[in-house]
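Annotated sample (chain length 234).
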Amino acid sequence: MHGEGNARARATASGERGLLVCGVIGPALFVAVFLVTSAVHPAGYDPLRHTVSAFVLGEFGWVQRASFVASGGLLLAYSVGLRPALRRYGGGRWVPVLIGLFAIGMIGSGVFAADPVAAGVTTAHPYPLGTPVWPDRTLHGVLHDLFGTPVFLGLPVACCVVAYRLAAAGHKGWAAYSAGTALAFLTGFVLTAMALAQPPLIPSIGGLLQRLTIIIGWAWLAALAAYLIRRTTR
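Output written by the structure step:
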């Protein structure tokens, strides 16, 4: 009986680590794909001005859409592993829910394509080429934006909750990193919105600002997963 209990515990820990590994792979995959597509992009697409989501409108948009769905699926699995991993720090309820919603938002953002970038919104750089100044909104574009809400708002909230839990557990460095990530992510989100406004409120580099914001947030997701993996193996 004792041996069976130990085997069951090892299997549970192994399953938990497997789910946490998804939290490393998912963000890395998403960032790697958009960095490649930013370097090799179709005519009319400017990664300095256009968002990651806008890439799905081009010839090879299926690559970016697949990245949204695959990365979101991996992060959804990660959210399941987060609950037992964070329970050791007195948490384990809200962060998995927030990351789960984040993951669903990514999947939905891939399933429903963004609307075309209007001429004049990014300093007269429409995408795809030929898009009018005021294109009609589409249902899939509206749904894309709705699914994006838990992505860009849920992550900083999750960072703050983790910061609180880890600070209470005595992990001051990680608490500071999580709080700093929340601040940097929200700042990047606001600056991106200002750059994409009509007319732009700051230089039209919304695509670059969004990519930097994503890297900051997704790096935190992967780093937290790696940190929790190390803790579960001790």
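Annotation: Helices lie at 2-39, 61-87, 94-111, 139-168, 172-196, 206-232.
Annotation: Confidence is low (pLDDT under 50) at residues 4-11.
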